[in-house]
Amino acid sequence: MTLKKYNQGMSKIHLSPYEIILKKRNGGNLSELEIDFMVRGFNECAIPPYQFSSFLMAVFFRGMSEDEIFSLTKSMMNSGEVLSLSEISKYTVDKHSTGGVGDKVSIILAPLAAAGGVTVPMMCGRSLGHTGGTLDKLESIRGFRTNLSKKDFFRNLKKSKVAMMGQTEKIAPADKKIYALRDITATVDSIPLIAASIMSKKLAEGAKALLLDVKTGNGAFIKDIGDSEKLARLMVKIAKKMKRKCTAVITDMNQPLGYAIGNSLEIKECIETLHDRGPEDLKSLCVEFAAHMFLLGKKTKSIQAGKILALRLIKDGSAFRKLCEMAKNQGGDVKSLENPSLLPSAKYICRLKSAGKGYIKGINTHEIGLTAVMIGAGRKDLSSKIDPGAGIMLHKKIGDFTEKGEPLATIYTSRKNLTGYAKERLLDSFSISKTVPAKQKLIHRIIR
Predict the structure, then answer these.
(1) Based on CB atoms within 10 Å of each CB, which residue in 96, 103, 193, 299 is the most buried?
(2) Tens digit of pLDDT for each residue in 419-448?
(3) Helix, strand, coil share (%) of the chain residues, nearest 5
(4) Are residues 367 and 251 part of one domain?
């Protein structure tokens, strides 16, 4: 329905963008009708960007009630096609992360959960700001297609129980358009807008259950744990209201996850993890998440049973074989998964050496993410081209001891002119202490 017909159907009610913006600016609560009018109007170009920018800024400063956030989510979800996966499986479970540095969990988790019998329809994103994107990582596997049609998506789910794809033009198009405006109007880090954006896409995708990885810490978009918990609880409430099962896990992002940061480097670390040789923090988080997905997907009756199943699927190679199967379904070069040396590599490699002796006390994860973007591993804007071989490999993390001159990290890039500046930025990202720091907590809260 066009906005014109929408307005005709509401002929007895006068709706004005100006009055709605003014109402929210003054702290008023908007009705479902008013919110839908704004979303529909902007999506159909009937409300100009300058007015919708004012609306977003009013929301940013005044916030939204839970009812308003639910209305915004529903309106964005219904702006396009809403998929039904009931013909594929009674229990479908998706997972979403709010974004971090070195966060390659989805690439391990999706085939791991599918190997355990859960149907995993996963809609993923691209790199954003200082964080990496699952789609970009997958596309460092030669030939891997992420722009699947609905027909291909459904076929792969029926065949292999797992498919990973990008957001289509038909799924929550209003969210895509609104997010682009948020990105240039400094309204990205608004809890109501983040919750509505994530949940509108995930609900439109059609999964019956959802696992949320809400990152918190200096490398996350939301750095305060209180705000992270607020976001997590809000998204769980939205899911419940829409009759979907949901679990949110608040995880630490005060240091990169694993050691690899950058697309093909992270794929290599995923392969290592699925061969039971990966970093302990990455493996333990994937096992924890898989256990929750098994529980949500009715494959196990407890988290402990789910963990046992996940460990077995890694050890016997089932999860890795499922990754290869998914890659083959989506046109990916399986040989590069079996022999990771075939994955893209950077032209130049240089090492960063420690300037002092002691224990790694802290890591500026946000700065490391920005450095990775600078050397080609991410995007500065939508037109930026990613170098799949670029990235950073850490050798030390919080709590590790380092001697002066010992390697802290290795830089991989094809931009030789930037290696000196990259080393300076990375060196400033590590803080060293003579005393042993407290052990980092990987999982802060679990909200069901």
Answers:
(1) 103
(2) 999 999 999 999 999 999 999 899 999 998
(3) 50, 15, 35
(4) no
Q: Tell me which residue range forms the domain holding 45.
A: 3-63
CATH code for the domain in which residue 148 is found? 3.40.1030.10
pLDDT tens across 99-148, in order? 999 999 999 999 999 999 999 999 888 887 788 899 999 999 999 999 99
Who's near 11: CB < 8 A, 6+ residues apart?
A: none
**CA–CA dist 330, 152 (Å, integer):** 9
User: CB within 8 A of 260, min separation 6: which ones?
Assistant: 102, 104, 266, 268, 269, 391, 392, 393, 394
Per the CB < 8 A criterion, the answer to whether 193 and 73 are in contact is no
CATH code (residue 56): 1.20.970.10
How many other CB atoms are there within 10 angstroms of residue 128's CB atom? Answer: 15
Specify the pTM. 0.92
Are both 175 and 193 inside the same structural domain? Answer: yes
Q: Do residue 220 and residue 324 come from a single domain?
A: yes
Catalytic residues: 96, 175, 182, 197, 201
For residues 398 and 362, the answer to whether their CB atoms sit within 8 Å is yes
